[in-house]
Design a protein that fits this description.
Elements: H1 19-26, H2 31-39, H3 43-60, H4 63-66, H5 100-136, H6 138-152, H7 156-166, H8 175-200, H9 204-211, H10 216-228, H11 230-253, H12 264-271, H13 280-307
């Protein structure tokens, strides 16, 4: 009989998990990381981003796209007015003999600058007022809500038309269009931000922050704003395309961008009287405008679907 002690089950040693890996595995996913993960797999988001990137490059460096053309946007020859496409003028010439392709490329700058500037102003003004009204409540909420209702009662395009026509001689350039659109468009952002803040202010994390003695400003900007800004980003992205089309409408009516500046709406207005004789000077800026508006609307829809868990 052997005197060796009984040998128990053999246990294999395992290497400890590195602390950084444990930290990475334990880190919870946030709304923004989940949204970005979802957006990368949406063809509509990818297509809209590619289109918007091309439009932005076109706005800031139009010479990259007009290098194939020997004429710039302001070189006009009346003797060649309304000529069709040719080797030197791939989109033809308009009623003043200007190159339609070059003007369509350079027209992107004013249209997109107006759309982006108006979106930024409305998001900041409407977002801050909505944050203040939703977080404070009481008299602040009542007063700002009544003021917002006054602006909602004004027809948007009609009000912008009136403002642009009134200050047409103020020599503000394209910024009069930005001001006219922003003055009447911020209430929509205000309402969305206010509703999101009212929903978030009764959540447990906000109540806990107040119980721990957090100041009102810390609660507003540290807790409420990050959790209420998602719908504002969505509506701002969608509205950007609407602002570009609104600028085209104002320019078409003669109170938007004025010559010698160039915009797609102004090009459409100049070509409308000769459409049956020469349709291309109207068709090409209209196509550029439609693609731009569609790209921003597609981007807004994709972002909305990614940020709203109910739509996934």
């Amino acid at each position: 009989m052997s005197n060796d002690p009984q040998v128990g089950p053999v246990q294999t040693a395992t290497a400890p998990t590195p602390p950084d890996k444990l930290k990475k595995e334990a880190k919870p996913a946030s709304l923004w990381s989940d949204a970005f993960y979802d957006l990368r797999r949406r063809p509509m988001f990818i297509v809209s981003c590619v289109l918007i990137a091309i439009l932005l490059v076109m706005s800031f460096w139009p010479s990259l796209f007009t290098s194939i053309n020997p004429f710039d946007a302001k070189t006009c020859e009346l003797a060649t007015a309304r000529q069709g496409p040719s080797a030197g003028h791939i989109f033809g010439r308009d009623s003043l003999g200007c190159d339609v392709y070059a003007r369509a490329i350079y027209g992107a700058r004013n249209s997109i600058v107006i759309g982006v500037s108006t979106t930024i102003i409305t998001a900041i003004v409407g977002g801050l007022l909505g944050l203040l009204a939703g977080a404070r409540g009481g008299a602040v909420d009542t007063v700002t809500s009544r003021v917002t209702e006054v602006f909602f009662a004004i027809p948007w395009i009609l009000g912008a038309l009136l403002i642009s026509a009134t200050f047409r001689d103020a020599d503000l350039g394209i910024w009069i269009v930005v001001i006219a659109l922003a003055v009447l468009a911020w209430p929509m952002t205000f309402r969305i931000m206010r509703a999101a803040v009212i929903t978030a202010r009764n959540q447990d994390f906000v109540v806990a922050a107040r119980a721990l003695g957090a100041s009102q400003s810390r609660v507003m900007f540290g807790h409420l704003l990050p959790n209420a800004v998602a719908p504002v980003i969505v509506i701002a992205t969608i509205n950007l395309g609407g602002f570009i089309s609104a600028e085209a409408a104002l320019s078409f009516l003669g109170v938007g961008v004025q010559s010698p500046d160039i915009s797609w709406g102004l090009m459409i207005a100049d070509a409308r009287n000769r459409f049956l004789e020469a349709p291309l000077p109207l068709v090409f800026p209209a196509v550029f405008l439609s693609i731009t508006v569609l790209a921003f609307i597609m981007l807004g829809d994709a972002v909305r679907d990614a940020l709203d868990p109910k739509l996934r």
